[in-house]
Every structure is written in C-alpha cells, then in structure tokens.
Amino acid sequence: QVQLVESGGGLVQPGGSLRLSCAASRVIFSIVAMGWYRQAPGKQRELVAIITRGSTNYADSVKGRFTISRDNAKNTVYLQMNSLKPEDTAVYYCSIGDGPRTYWGQGTQVTVSS
C-alpha cells in the first residue's frame, strides 16, 4: 500500500511563499500524473497543478505564481507557491496516478492571512 505524506503547509502573510512536499512511501512505477489539488471551505476540490508524462498544467488562478516539480529519485512532488493571496487558503492534497490507481495524501492546510 502506497502512502503519500504531505508537508510544508502553514500560515503565511499575503505576498509570502510556501513550498509543499509530497513523498511517496515507496517507488511508484509507471507514473502517469502527479498533481496538487486544493479544497477551500464550502467549495469543491479543484486542480491546482499537474505534471503528466508530456506536460505541466496549472489552474488559471495560480499561473505565474505556483510551480510544480518532481524528484523521481526521492519519489517526491513539490509545489512552490509564491505571491500567495488570501484566496489561496485551502487544504492542499497531492495525488499520484499510475493508470489503474490514484493515490492521495492526507492534506495540508495553507492559510494566507495578515
């Protein structure tokens, strides 16, 4: 059973930065996609950023501010978040899919507030 462990969330002032990490408990073969999602109170979970085999895509609301990256050797995916806004406040979840299966992390809270 694969577990994804997220870290890096917290409280930050508007304009600040955070870096989220998501580490898999073991090697996942044939990864199709690695992504970050978020869910704000009262809202549906939404895609923030995703890396597939051939491309990287971002939600319009985070383009130019967030960067997704991966370290295959460490089975880890990252989300660098800059110029954070109060509307970025949410629980952030990482997801890794290998085709038949999609694994999810437990979520990490990001709060942007002065």
Average pLDDT level: 94
Instruction: Summarize the amount of helix as a percent range.
Output: under 10%
Order of helices and strands: EEEEEEEEEEE
| Ends apart, CA distance between termini | 40 Å
Extended strand count: 11
3D structure, described in words:
The protein is mainly β. It is built from no helices and eleven strands. A hairpin with a 4-residue loop joins strand 9 and strand 10. The radius of gyration is 13 Å and the shape is globular. The mean pLDDT is 94.
Brief digest:
The chain is mainly beta and 114 residues long. It contains no helices and eleven strands.
Structural descriptors:
7-stranded mixed β-sheet, single chain, 4-stranded antiparallel β-sheet, 52% strand, globular
Describe the secondary-structure layout.
Layout: E1 4-7, E2 10-12, E3 18-24, E4 33-39, E5 46-52, E6 56-58, E7 66-71, E8 76-81, E9 90-97, E10 102-104, E11 108-112
Parallel strand pairs: 2-11
Antiparallel strand pairs: 1-3, 3-8, 4-5, 4-9, 5-6, 7-8, 9-10, 9-11
